[in-house]
Each structure stands twice: as C-alpha cells, then as structure tokens.
Amino acid sequence: MATASMEDYLERIYQLIEEKGYARVSDIADTLEVHPSSVTKMVQKLDKSGYLVYEKYRGLVLTAKGNKIGKRLVYRHELLEDFLHMIGVDESYIYRDVEGIEHHLSWDAIDRIGDLVQYFHEDENRLKALQEHHKTPE
C-alpha cells in the first residue's frame, strides 16, 4: 500500500497529467514545493512499486494501477474539500485541513462522507437548511 507521501505524489502526478497531458519532475517539484532530487527518489520508488514507469530524462507514465489510485486520491481530496465547504469551514482553512486529514481516514469513512455529501446535493432544500443552520447563532 502507498504511504501518505506516495499518495501525495500520485495525486499530484495524476492531476498534472490530466491538466497538461504529462508530468515532469520539475513540475512535480514546483507544485509540491520540494527539491527535484526528492521527486526523482520518490518517482523511482513509485516505479519500483508499479504505480508508474519512469525513464530518466524521458518522463513518466502512470500504470493502470497508478492511474486508478491517482484518480481515487483526487476524488478523495475534492470530496473532502466539498464536505468541509458544505459544513461551513472557513475557505481559508479548507485546503490545509484536507491535507491534514485525508491520509488519516479509511476508505470506508470516505465512502460514508461521499454518501452524506450526495444526500445534501440531491436536495437543494437540505443543503440550504444545513447552510442556514451554520448562520444561526447558538
């Protein structure tokens, strides 16, 4: 299983490939705010673990396994952002909070949060009632 650090890299690599069609070591380093040498080490580790194929100076490609996990990690991140926004967490805290909790929740918990988010999105009145509840002083 991927470590939290490996997940962060897979998530970002997947996003870069979706956005640009490719992911270079320099792009990954810039977006994760780490040194390119750290990215190279992690990419080599991800290659050995079967998440991607890396050729020095030629780039990298996610394997089917890496693509599937990358997609699910992006979903998890976006879902948690949606959930925190829905329950009224201040926008300035959402990204940091998601980064802090996303690796500590089971996929079962993520699925249940997904069910809850879907429940509120299915009926605009439910979502409005929840948002009104946030505005009501205790």
TrEMBL record:
<keyword id="KW-0804">Transcription</keyword>
<keyword id="KW-0010">Activator</keyword>
<comment type="similarity">
    <text>Belongs to the DtxR/MntR family.</text>
</comment>
<keyword id="KW-0805">Transcription regulation</keyword>
<dbReference type="GO" id="GO:0005737">
    <property type="term" value="C:cytoplasm"/>
</dbReference>
<dbReference type="InterPro" id="IPR036421">
    <property type="entry name" value="Fe_dep_repressor_sf"/>
</dbReference>
<dbReference type="GO" id="GO:0030026">
    <property type="term" value="P:intracellular manganese ion homeostasis"/>
</dbReference>
<comment type="subunit">
    <text>Homodimer.</text>
</comment>
<keyword id="KW-0678">Repressor</keyword>
<comment type="function">
    <text>Central regulator of manganese homeostasis.</text>
</comment>
<feature type="binding site">
    <location>
        <position position="8"/>
    </location>
    <ligand>
        <name>Mn(2+) 1</name>
    </ligand>
</feature>
<dbReference type="InterPro" id="IPR022897">
    <property type="entry name" value="HTH_tscrpt_reg_MntR"/>
</dbReference>
<dbReference type="InterPro" id="IPR022687">
    <property type="entry name" value="HTH_DTXR"/>
</dbReference>
<feature type="binding site">
    <location>
        <position position="102"/>
    </location>
    <ligand>
        <name>Mn(2+) 1</name>
    </ligand>
</feature>
<dbReference type="GO" id="GO:0030145">
    <property type="term" value="F:manganese ion binding"/>
</dbReference>
<keyword id="KW-0464">Manganese</keyword>
<dbReference type="Pfam" id="PF01325">
    <property type="entry name" value="Fe_dep_repress"/>
</dbReference>
<keyword id="KW-0963">Cytoplasm</keyword>
<dbReference type="InterPro" id="IPR022689">
    <property type="entry name" value="Iron_dep_repressor"/>
</dbReference>
<keyword id="KW-0479">Metal-binding</keyword>
<feature type="binding site">
    <location>
        <position position="102"/>
    </location>
    <ligand>
        <name>Mn(2+) 2</name>
    </ligand>
</feature>
<protein>
    <recommendedName>
        <fullName>HTH-type transcriptional regulator MntR</fullName>
    </recommendedName>
</protein>
<dbReference type="InterPro" id="IPR050536">
    <property type="entry name" value="DtxR_MntR_Metal-Reg"/>
</dbReference>
<dbReference type="GO" id="GO:0046983">
    <property type="term" value="F:protein dimerization activity"/>
</dbReference>
<dbReference type="Pfam" id="PF02742">
    <property type="entry name" value="Fe_dep_repr_C"/>
</dbReference>
<dbReference type="InterPro" id="IPR001367">
    <property type="entry name" value="Fe_dep_repressor"/>
</dbReference>
<dbReference type="InterPro" id="IPR036390">
    <property type="entry name" value="WH_DNA-bd_sf"/>
</dbReference>
<feature type="binding site">
    <location>
        <position position="99"/>
    </location>
    <ligand>
        <name>Mn(2+) 1</name>
    </ligand>
</feature>
<dbReference type="InterPro" id="IPR036388">
    <property type="entry name" value="WH-like_DNA-bd_sf"/>
</dbReference>
<keyword id="KW-0238">DNA-binding</keyword>
<feature type="binding site">
    <location>
        <position position="77"/>
    </location>
    <ligand>
        <name>Mn(2+) 2</name>
    </ligand>
</feature>
<dbReference type="GO" id="GO:0003677">
    <property type="term" value="F:DNA binding"/>
</dbReference>
<feature type="domain" description="HTH dtxR-type">
    <location>
        <begin position="1"/>
        <end position="63"/>
    </location>
</feature>
<dbReference type="GO" id="GO:0003700">
    <property type="term" value="F:DNA-binding transcription factor activity"/>
</dbReference>
<feature type="binding site">
    <location>
        <position position="99"/>
    </location>
    <ligand>
        <name>Mn(2+) 2</name>
    </ligand>
</feature>
<feature type="binding site">
    <location>
        <position position="11"/>
    </location>
    <ligand>
        <name>Mn(2+) 2</name>
    </ligand>
</feature>
<feature type="binding site">
    <location>
        <position position="103"/>
    </location>
    <ligand>
        <name>Mn(2+) 1</name>
    </ligand>
</feature>
